[in-house]
Amino acid sequence: MLTQIYNGHVLTPKGWINDGSVVINNDKIVDINTSCELIPQAKQINAQGKHVVPGGIDLHVHGGGGADFMEGTVEAFKTAVDAHLKHGTTAIFPTLSSSTLPMIEASAEACTELMKDPQTPIMGLHLEGPYFNPRRAGAQIPGSIRMPDPEEYQYLVGAYRCIKRWDSAPELPGAAKLGRFLSHNGVIAAIAHTEAEYEDVRIAYESGYSHATHFYNAMPGFHNVREYKHAGTVEAVYLMENMTVEIIADGIHVPAPIMQLVYRAKGLERTALITDALAVAASDSTQAFDPRVIIEDGVCKLADRSALAGSIATMDRLIRTAVKIAGIPLDDACRMASETPARITGIYDRKGTLQIGKDADIMILDDDINLTNVIAMGKEVPLD
Fold first, then answer.
1. Does pTM top 0.90 for this prediction?
2. For 215, which of 26, 29, 228, 378 is 20 to 30 Å away at the CA?
3. What domains does the chain contain, in order, with CATH numbers?
């Protein structure tokens, strides 16, 4: 089936195309041009001069539509994925907070089952924990946090090829060994929920840790130890030149000046936008999967207000916030939501940009950065 998006302001790797046309055959992009000529046999979508950009890729998302990936069922996965699809996330890495082994197994089974479908937007499972510093637990479930266990992580990575990323605090005993194992087995090793100082991060980087989870959150920056000044995790990540980062671009977890700083210092090539969304995102629900969590001021918090606890953001909100609040140019914000995460996760050969031969994953945004259309693998998604 042919589909033609025409009269669009189309973002390509070479820049914007005015009066652009994107032609889709089944699930692939087969042409991008400036022709105004309509293809008679194609389904027509008039972009009306709006911005035609790559579909978003969410590296870090816990749930949506009232469902949490920690539920470990195919139904919960489908509900959450579909909820975010309606907001422009056309490729997704379901994320588990620190969990027990049976919970990880159940979610990995559900993820594996859904990934058998070649049309699925699920690209792999992301384990946020459980090997974290309990002093930086944030909203992680304290009882699930533990030290790196080689028997556990070697079993899980060997048994479930859907696991594509694993986060750990790099200062923990055995964390360097974990990083080497993950990177040698094609799993992204990321640092998170940590009190690491410069030397810890340097060793982690050399051990295979290549990414920093929800940058600036649950990690220390510049600080004093008695009378001496120390570089924290934040400064160390900046100094590891090729270490990539992700930021929760809801305008709350990371304020606008810090978003600008990350954008300028790390650059769009090493900065991905993420939602870190909980089950209440893209839903009418006000109850998170974790009963300790409340919704207040447009964000998730622990009920005692000791920490933020994930977001209610969606992909379209990330781009809108980056542009309208942080002042990041639209093309760069879109690339940070699509191209950069595709490169980080090794799916750039088929996702992340509008190019001939790539999957037809597309968002259309109006001038106020509101989402008007989503196409996933060549199919229009009802936004209702």
1. yes
2. 228
3. 2-52+358-380 (2.30.40.10), 55-345 (3.20.20.140)
